[in-house]
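Q: What does the assembled structure look like for these inputs?
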Amino acid sequence: MIWELIRANRRRSVTLFLMMGLVLVALGYLLGSVFFPPDGGFIGVAIALIIWLVQALVARYSGNRILLALSGARKVTPDVHPQLFHVVEEMRLAGGLPAMPEVYIIDEQAPNAFATGRDPSHSAVAVTAGLVARLNRDELQGVVAHEVSHVMNRDIRFLTYAGIMLGTVVLISEIYLRGMLWGGGGRYRSGSSKGSGQGQIIMMVLAVALAVLAPIMAQLLYFAISRKREYLADASAVRLTRYPAGLASALEKISANTVEMKSANKVTAPLYIANPFLGKGRKMADLTSTHPPISERIRILRSMMHDASFNGYQQAYASVRGDAEGIIPISGLRDEKVIVPREAADTGKPEDVRDVRRDAGDIMMRAGNFTFITCDCGLRLKLPPDYRLPRVKCPRCGRVHELDQRPGK
Amino acid sequence: MAALIFLLIIGLILIWGISIYNSLVRLRNQVRNAWSQIDVQLKRRHDLIPNLVETVRGYMVHERETLEHITLARTQAMSASSISEKAKAENILGGMLGRLQIAVEAYPDLKANQNFLALQEELTSTENKISFSRQNYNDQVLFFNNKIQMFPSNIVASMFHFSEEVFFEVEDVTEKAVPQVTFQSGS
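A:
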């Protein structure tokens, strides 16, 4: 358990919350005094405070649901993919989480995953269908362990707050700037002719500057946070699974991906285990660096041969990055003994792209309550949930299957 | 004035002592909770075994003895009471299940059975859950024992009789286990 990290995350959450309030109040004051002089400033402040409160409540109680909905994640039951649930529960036990995280699947072929939630008792893990189809048990365990580590280190709460706040600031300044372009200016002119002229113009410029700058500031703040925590989550993941090669090879498969992820956006990108943007998006994101280079993370994991503890990660990190200072805070290293990595446990997984596609499709169909029937001729029939007939005929061999055990009939 | 300062110091020491006491209680509860998690998983394993034996019995004609040993080891594990006894019995059972999983390789029909495949994933996961909850238990015991031994929390710990918890050690007992179980089944 890395106590410094948990404490730092708590501190950052509070700082973020206060800074957010400051920005909102300043924005509210400026906008208010520009639009409704002379004392609209106070109305603006009052509105800003209300927005701040509502936003804090929303971030706390439904931030996770908003982020999951934004990513197109669908909550699933264990029968959709028993192995995924097993792996999540294994990692929950290894990490000593008080409650089982909710499991979500995202309908995407690109392999990726993220975690969100309020605290370790209220967390959720979301993986893409492409990830589950591509990774074997050991690799899946590595990825899930990385996500559970974010839950344990309280990264999720901070990232969820930050995501919701970034979203709000972007939204407000967008509305404001649009308002300026489409007619807000007119109202401003009529206001200024009555008001004090020069002071109004200064206010006006300030308001525009702030409206433009606020989302950029929020974005930078958001990006500045997530580099280190990815390394730390990798280190914790290895400590949980005792198997660095699992996460390493999962990251290799993730980085080999060439399919664009459609459901990821600027707000949700830092949550993912690997940068979801490809090509142009990736270059842009490199500047603002939401994620450390994946090749470096792989090299660190690959050089952890004999010790899966925090010490082992620390040494591997130091030798790969040539950074003697290391990455893991002192409380993580204090009681560490050497942990010998375990053996590989898993069998293979389809390598062929078409097989992976089909498997990912099957997972999504299962998540969508399709019924699967294997005919004696070997053909698999997939029936949508709105199929209402009592029997179905196999298109290949003509055998008729009775569907009397279907639920909801 | 001096009396006031004296009272203040006493008060601070008291608050400090209470906070250490509370953190000791919290850590001990975490150890107990971690232990109960292991128990849940062990029980799950015990529940799975009859089902497993039933499924494979028809296929594994040459492993009848192994299956009997597993059933017997399960009964022993279920009746064990102390932590060390339990650890030993469960290690034996775990070893036997591991051997069964290897023996399965010789039965292609069995490996193709959907029922068995689902059961095998279930069993693999249960084994993993046992070892991961044990891992977490040992972590929690380590935190707790460190807290008890280290200054200054050791003062509070000894005042309120907090005693060190026992690690759940795993040793490679598969080799040692076999004769013992054979002996039991022969008697």
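DSSP finds seven helices and no strands in chain B.
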